[in-house]
Amino acid sequence: MEYDDIFQYIGETGLYQVYIFVLLGLPSYFSGIMNLTPNFVNYVQEHWCYVKRLENYPHDWQKYVAVPYVNGDGGNYDSCKVYDIEYDNLTDQDIVQWNRSLVEAAGTPTRDCDAWVYDQSEFVSTIVSDVRKISLLNIQMMHKMIKNSTIFLSCTRK
């Protein structure tokens, strides 16, 4: 018996085959979407502390003036700390002629952020940027919660 003969015997595409295809294919489609979605919605945008006085300056200058480096290494900006300075007392001339090395040499204290500015060059909005109250620990906890809830939902759907 040939392969084509089997289809003539059992019948070609009919209502039953379409029903089985939808019944088995639809859950697989949504499972794939659920597995790929966290890559986009959980993306952690580059962010730094929001300083109202600096909002009209370019992002690079905002970070240069207000945000300390991580561990003082001079490479990466800290995303959850800002220099504890009264920025409202600074003139535009002070900001434009800012000398970061003097601030670092003086051992200027830092404080935690109240609000953040997000780099929107790749994504305009993600879960992380919408929450607005983040720190590295909260991000890790959020990933674990979403992963656990996704696993729980996929187990209860069967």
Helices, by number, come to: 7
Distance between the termini: 38 Å
Which regions are unreliable across 5 or more consecutive residues at pLDDT < 50?
A: none
Bin the strand percentage: 5-15%
Helix content: 40-55%
Which structural class should the secondary elements be placed in? mainly alpha
* Form type: rod-shaped
Mean pLDDT: 81
The largest sheet, given as strand count, sense and whether it forms a barrel, is: 2 strands, antiparallel
H-E string: HHEHEHHEEHH
Summed up, what is this model?
By secondary structure, the protein is mainly alpha-helical. The protein is built from 7 helices and 4 strands, in the order H-H-E-H-E-H-H-E-E-H-H.
Characterise this structure.
With 158 residues, this protein is mainly alpha-helical. The protein has a domain at 47-119. Helix content is 51%, strand content 8%. The chain is built from seven helices and four strands. The chain has helices spanning 3-10, 15-41, 59-66, 92-96, 100-105, 127-131, 136-156, and strands at residues 47-49, 81-83, 110-112, 116-118. The chain has a two-stranded antiparallel sheet.
Task: List descriptors.
158 residues, mainly alpha, two-stranded antiparallel ribbon, 7 helices, 51% helix
Question: What layout of secondary structure does this protein have?
Answer:
Elements: H1 3-10, H2 15-41, E1 47-49, H3 59-66, E2 81-83, H4 92-96, H5 100-105, E3 110-112, E4 116-118, H6 127-131, H7 136-156
Antiparallel strand pairs: 1-4, 2-3
